[in-house]
Amino acid sequence: MAAACPLGQAAETVAVQLLGFLWFVSVTTGPWGAAAAGGEEPLKCEDLKVGQYICKGPKINDATQEPVNCTNYTAHAPCFPAPNITCKDFSGNETHFTGNEVGFFKPISCRNVNGYSYKVAVALSLFLGWLGADRFYLGYPALGLLKFCTVGFCGIGSLIDFILISMQIVGPSDGSSYIIDYYGTRLIRLSITNETFRKTQLYP
User: Fold this and answer.
1) pTM attached to this predicted model
2) What residue ranges are annotated as transmembrane (predicted)?
3) Strand partners for 117
C-alpha cells in the first residue's frame, strides 16, 4: 500500500499536465487564440478617426474651377494617415505610415460646368441687361429678344434678372453650374423634402 502512493501521485501529475496541454491547445487555436495572435481584420484607413489623418485639397482645374478628377459630381481628395499608424490603404495593403503616404481618397462633391462664367453673367446683367444680353448669354434667346424689344421690360425686368443672376437662382439653360472660383462666393441651395431627417423637438 505504501508503494502505491507515489504511483498515484505520478498519475495525477500526468493527468494535470495533460489537461493543461489540452487547455492551451484549445485557447491558442480557438477564436480567442486567433484574436490574441492578431487574427483580427486590420483597420481600413478610411475608418480612421478625425485627427488620425489629414486630407489635402484637390487639384483645381484653372478653366473650370473644379477638381480635375470630377466625375458624376464627385471628386476625390488624397488623405494621409498620421505617423506610426498601421491600416489598410486604398489598394488593400496593410501599411505602416510615416505621414507622407496616401492612405485613402476621400470623396468630395463637385459641380458640372459648361463654360458659363458667373462674373460674365453678372456683368452683362448689370450693364447690358436692358438689351437682354444676359439672357442671350445664358441660353434663353426668347427672353433675351423680348427684353431687347421692351428695353428690359422698362427696366423692371432688368433689375429682377440682375437680382436673380446675382443670387445664382437663374443659371445656364442647359442645367449646368456657373464657373466660380473654387474658394469664391458659391451659394448652396438647401431644400427640405419628405426624406430629410428631422430632429425630434424636445419641449420642456
Assistant:
1) 0.65
2) 116-133, 145-165
3) 179
- CA 141 to chain centroid, in Å, comes to 38
DSSP per residue, 114-171: EEEEHHHHHHHHHHHGGGTHHHHHHT-HHHHHHHHHTHHHHTHHHHHHHHHHHTT-S-
Nearest to 67 by CA among 105, 119, 122, 117: 105
What is the rounded distance in angstroms from the CA atom of residue 57 to the CA atom of residue 67?
9
Count CB atoms within 10 A of the CB of residue 82: 14
Domain regions of the chain by residue span = 45-111, 115-179
Instruction: For residue 56, give the amino acid letter.
Output: K
Give the model confidence (pLDDT) of 59-98 as tens digits.
999 999 999 988 889 999 999 999 999 999 989 899 999 9
Burial of 110 (0-12, 13-18, 19+ CB in 10 A): buried
Greatest Cα pair distance in the chain: 128
